[in-house]
Design brief:
About 40% of the residues lie in helices and about 15% in strands. The chain is built from 17 helices and 15 strands. The protein has a six-stranded parallel beta sheet with strand order 7-1-8-9-12-15, with helices on both faces. The longest helix has about 35 residues.
Length: about 450
């Protein structure tokens, strides 16, 4: 028989062996995880990219219903078309030539139908989104002009370096960004179909990756669509299928820049384009109406547009639309948009907002002559060059009392609204956050094994 000292020594040896086994197991698991991530992305949660306004390619074709405003815009233009008459409408360089700018405008315009309470294409103009489910449509707005129309290509490259693969663990959700969504009780056929398609893509991406919940990564307007998708589905569905929601440069409270677009037209940096020629199309966009400054975020006191006769705040958008000569926008704004933006609910899934700061951003417009056809004088404030800080940080103020909502905010000085998708520091930050999200599952597994 062993004496007491010998028994204690044997117990210590047994405990040492157990600890050693657990340690070896953890090391092996870590090795497998690292190897898998480097080669096949096996440890990665599937990730879906949702672009912003104008962030993916669109094609169009014309039927006999199409009635052009001029011979130049007749159905012969453009000369080169794909099978069954499809052609690129966004983005096409012919828009920079005035006669073709007019063609672009009338073909891209939406029309609100009061009786049907919904938005529709110009009669005879049919449009389609390319490559839903893939990132192909998000890389470049025109693949023939990669150097000047690059969009999410650098971000996708960075994600591929992390181990993501298009169509396997990485997916894209392009959409017709002219259309938006409406408050409950109002039809929004195109926008609602996109949410349905996105929901199906989330479920399919999860199923094809062993049931792992999905990371949603949006840019700009895409964040508004994602938040609506989450809040329009049951909490049980969100908890099952959504791992994390990362929103880049999201205009939660709209943007003052949109008032400039509605008042005077916005070339969006495209050279040689007459802003007054594209203004009718921009005013007709349902999503642009959605992006006007949110009264709840900007408040009644902040001056946004100033003329000799009137100062407009975010609470005066109805009068603003009338006074710029766009009264037809008032009814859909009041009935479809205002109720939609009045309550931005928490989705109760983890949310991370990543944004640029310290970039001159339009803050107030001064129309000295009261003529909205003229370029205004502009005062600038803080933001990402497109979206104001009040809007970028809106979730912090709107959700400050929601203890059950995880919200992380990351600010990057000097990063603009679009450079966040290609700036090296920004990309490292984004990829770093995705790596952390993926590593949490690994740490949970290690903790279980070591118990």
């Amino acid at each position: 028989m062993m004496n007491k000292q010998e028994q204690e020594q044997e117990q210590e040896q047994e405990q040492s062996v157990k600890i050693g086994v657990v340690t070896v197991t953890v090391v092996v698991m870590l090795s497998l995880v690292c190897t898998s991530g480097a080669s096949t992305g096996g440890n990665l949660h599937p990730l879906i990219l949702i672009p912003g306004n104008g962030g993916n390619q669109l094609e169009a074709k014309l039927s006999n219903e199409y009635k052009p405003s001029s011979f130049i815009c007749d159905s012969w233009y453009p000369l080169i078309k794909k099978k069954k008459g499809w052609f690129r409408i966004w983005f096409d360089t012919s828009v920079i030539l005035s006669p073709f700018t007019q063609c672009f405008t009338e073909r891209m315009m939406l029309h609100y139908h009061p009786q049907l309470d919904d938005y529709f294409n110009t009669p005879g103009v049919h449009t389609r989104v390319l490559h839903f489910g893939s990132t192909n449509s998000l890389l470049y707005l025109n693949p023939r002009l990669k150097h000047i129309t690059g969009y999410m290509a650098p971000l996708v490259d960075s994600l591929q370096e992390l181990g993501y693969a298009d169509g396997e663990t990485l997916f894209g959700a392009p959409y017709d960004f002219r259309y938006g969504l409406a408050a409950e009780g109002h039809p929004s056929q195109v926008g609602s179909k996109f949410l349905k398609d996105l929901k199906n893509l989330i479920e399919e991406a999860s199923a094809s990756n062993g049931g792992k919940p999905v990371i949603l990564l949006s840019h700009s307007l895409g964040g508004l669509f994602v938040l609506q998708l989450l809040n329009r589905n049951p909490l049980s569905w969100r908890q099952k299928f959504i791992k994390h929601f990362i929103a880049l440069s999201a205009p939660w409270g709209g943007a003052i820049d949109e008032t400039y677009t509605f008042a005077s037209g916005n070339t969006l940096g495209v050279p040689l384009v007459d802003p007054l020629l594209v203004r009718p199309e921009q005013r007709s966009s349902e999503s642009n109406l959605w992006l006007l400054p949110n009264p709840k975020v900007f408040g009644p006191q902040k001056p946004i547009v100033i003329t000799p006769n009137r100062t407009y705040s975010a609470h005066d958008m109805v009068d603003f639309l009338k006074d710029i000569g766009f009264p037809e926008g008032v009814y859909p704004y009041e009935t479809r948009i205002v109720p939609l933006i009045s309550n931005i609910e928490t989705p109760q899934v983890p949310v991370t907002c990543i944004m640029g700061t310290g970039v001159r951003t339009l803050e107030t417009l001064f129309y000295g002559n009261g003529d909205f056809d003229e370029r205004p004088e502009i005062s600038y404030g803080d933001g990402d060059g497109t979206v104001n800080m009040l809007s970028l940080l809106a979730l912090q103020s709107l959700w400050k009392e929601e203890g059950n909502q995880y919200l992380k905010v990351i600010k990057m000085d000097g990063v603009s609204h679009t450079s966040i998708l290609k700036d090296e520091v920004a990309l490292n930050q984004i990829v770093g956050e995705i790596s952390k999200i993926n590593s949490r599952a690994e740490l949970d597994l290690i903790n279980v094994l070591s118990e």
